[in-house]
Amino acid sequence: MNTLRGSLLRSTCVVILLIPALAIAQQLKPVELPVPQTTGGMSLMQALRARHSTREFSSRKLPLQVLSNLLWAAFGVNRPESGKRTAPSAMNRQEIEIYVATAEGLYVYNAKGNKLDPVLEQDVRAATGTQSFMGEAPVNLVYVADLAKAGGASLEERALYMGADTGVIAQNVYLFCASEGLGAVVRGSVNRTALAKTMKLRADQKIILAQTVGYPR
Ligand SMILES: Cc1cc2nc3c(=O)[nH]c(=O)nc-3n(C[C@H](O)[C@H](O)[C@H](O)COP(=O)(O)O)c2cc1C
Predict the structure, then answer these.
(1) pTM to 2 decimals?
(2) If you measure from the C-alpha of residue 44 to the centroid of ligand 1, how many angstroms do you get, rounded to a whole number?
(3) pLDDT tens-place string over residues 138-162
């Protein structure tokens, strides 16, 4: 009898613990991104001429097609046969994950599947930095390194590679935004400890930089 009561209690606890996780998973759905448009835009030289940082954004949302194009330009798969990407990465480790913070919630870019995988049904945009415009802009990208994938003989070397791998992605974003008339600013001023907690990151994930994207105000 006691064993029966014990196992009933255990099952009830498991169900209670699972309910919040299931509820979140059911509410924030994956977002299938439209096939990225990989033609058009400014010439590279024009985009380089136009590239600059923007710190005043309107709250106008990015159309899904533009978001798809943006993420593909940032770090999408441009050679499906090898799985290689629009930005280089040290030893092709591809250790940088792009988290996408929008008003709807927090997602992680799934480059291979061309979709956004849900992470949190919470608007964390304002928490992605220390400045005032992040909460207003429609998209904040958070570049997170997966330490388990990062190469480098020493910690110092790993940190250099993770910084460089993030930098090239951020420049792709800048150039795409210049070409599309969007504003962008890459940001190192981030409370990484607090944001990692908000984003519920694992201990082996490290926030490198963030980047705000939106229509300039
Ligand atoms: C690694 C890095 C970190 C940066 N961090 C911030 C930041 O936290 N906040 C900000 O407003 N701009 C930041 N910037 C943007 C620079 O301030 C900006 O690129 C610089 O002032 C030159 O302006 P431009 O991008 O318009 O050429 C950062 C740039 C880099 C490369």
Answers:
(1) 0.90
(2) 21
(3) 999 999 999 999 877 888 999 999 9
Indicate which atom in ligand 1 lies nearest the CA of residue 170.
Answer: 31
Cβ 143 under 6 angstroms from ligand 1: no
Query: How far does the centroid of ligand 1 lie from the alpha carbon of residue 52, in Å?
Result: 9
120 Cβ partners below 8 Å, 6+ apart?
24, 28, 105, 106, 199, 200
Q: Does the CB atom of residue 134 touch ligand 1 within 6 A? A: no
The whole-number average pLDDT for the span 78-90 is: 98
Which pLDDT tens digit goes with each residue over 49-67?
A: 999 999 999 999 999 999 9
Output the CA 35–ligand 1 centroid distance in Å: 31
Q: Which two tokens stand for residue 198?
A: 């908000």
Mean per-residue pLDDT of the chain: 91
* Coil, helix or strand at residue 160: helix
Q: Is residue 188 within 6 Å of ligand 1 at its C-beta? A: yes
Which residues does 209 contact at the CB level (< 8 Å), separation at least 6? 143, 166, 167, 170, 186, 187, 188, 190
The rounded distance, in Å, linking the Cα atoms of 6 and 13 is 11
Q: Which residues contact 117 (CB under 8 A, 6 or more apart)?
A: 30, 107, 108, 109, 110
